[in-house]
Structures are given as C-alpha cells and as structure tokens.
Amino acid sequence: HLLRCRPVDARGFLGLTQSHNPYRWVLPVEKRVCVGGGFLFGGCGLGAAISALEGTSGRSVVWATSQYLSFAKPGEVLDIDVTIAVEGHQITQARAVGHVGNREILTVNAALGDRPDIPSGQFQAIPDVPPPARSAKREHRFGGEGWISDQLDERLVKLRPLDERDGTPGDGHSMLWARIPEVITGIDAATLGILGDFVPMGVGDALGITGGGNSLDNTLRVLRLVETEWVLLDVRIQGVQRGFGHGLVHMFAEDGTLMATASQSCIVRYWR
Predict the structure, then answer these.
(1) pLDDT digit string (tens) for 133-176?
(2) What distance in Å separates the CA atoms of residue 156 and residue 134, rounded to the nearest whole number?
(3) pLDDT band at 5; cut points 50, 70, 90
(4) Hey, which end of the chain has fewer CB within 10 Å, N or C?
C-alpha cells in the first residue's frame, strides 16, 4: 500500500512540485484544496503561486497579487509558469501564470526581496480577543466531505452563525483564529496566502446573508513572519456595492505580531 506522507510545509500541504524546468511548477487539483462548490480554493491558488515564485527566485515575497480568471476542478492539473521580469540587487519582480492546458486560471504578480538595514516598526495592534483554546470551533456547511474546510481548524471570535443571518446588516467586522494542522514547520508566505482568502466570508457576515462570494483578486502584503500555531484573521469589510464586496484582512500571530495583510474584491453570491 502507498501511504501519503504527512505534509510539513505549505508546499507539501498543497502537493506542489517543481518540474525538471525550474520555472514550471505542478499542482494536482485534489478535492482537499477545493471549496465545496467543486473548484480550487483561491487561497490555495495564491499560496501555490507564492511558493513557486519563492522557489524559483530564491527570495521571499514582499507582496503578491492574484487575479482569478477561471476555475480549476478536482482531477485537473494546474501548471504554474514563473517569469522573472526584473532581477535587481535586492528586489526581484516576477509573475506566475497558472493554467490547465491552454485555459488560464490565475495570474499572480509579485515583488520579492529583503532590505534588512532599513528601520522597522508595527503600527497596527492586535485586537483584544480570547485565545483559540477559549473560542468555539467553526462548523462548515460542507464539513466532513473532504473539501478545504476540513483541512482548516477555525475558532470563532466574532462571526454570526448562519442560522442567525436574517438579512440584517452587521458592522462589517469579523474575526476568527485559523490554522492548518498539517503544516507543522511554521508559518510562511504561502500559508498566509491560503489563510488570507476570507473576505468573502466576511461579506456574508456583514450583509447578514447565507452567502459569500467568488474572489476576483487577492493581494497579500507580507510584513514579518514569526513562529505561531494560530493566525488571527481580523476581517474588515469596507463596503458592498453593485454586487461586489471589498475588504481587508489583518493577519496576526498569537504574540501580536502583524505578519501580513490581505485585501480582496469578490462577486457576492447567495448560497443555494
């Protein structure tokens, strides 16, 4: 019998591998990295592209922005082609294009590098919230079916249950702790790319509907990575107009370090 090795980092969790060509990476689209609607979770697509960009360039992501163009479905294979546009002394500008055959799924532009001699600071503080151990587990409507929601562990801090959403708008502020139990080597940018795709969830909570949305884009901006088991997702929805929702996620480590922000726009959808 062939046993699946336990993943220890985001790349292993996703199942992403580098081909013989250092500029091409391969992601089998398994059910475990897809949402219940039957297509690749946008955060997993961005996380895979970030991992490919870092692996090819040898540098760490500063920011990466993804435009979602189409859907990759379970059983398909997503090829990710990396292009190094400019390679400077300290900064690399690059892009990654994910496609299934000749069907483009997502395009990611990014800057990578490090400038350690510049002063640093954090000017956004973590909200005063209970720790994960004192927060209730989030239940999903597709729970137990093997989708991406079963691979995540989420603890509620501020989020209305689905049975309490009657169309009454909220304040646009949702919070939850999240982790990927299989990723045991520590947080990296790819992991935050996976965990940052929660603006659609916040849109449903903000509108008070049993719904969410399909991501149009996602921009991850990485500040400082630290050791942490859990990530606090502090979701702020700025507004919903013309059928589109817009929001921002601050991503804090348990010690209060702001590790990254993620901003998104999404197509608002009601769930069937």
Answers:
(1) 999 999 887 778 899 999 999 999 999 998 899 999 999 999 99
(2) 9
(3) low
(4) N
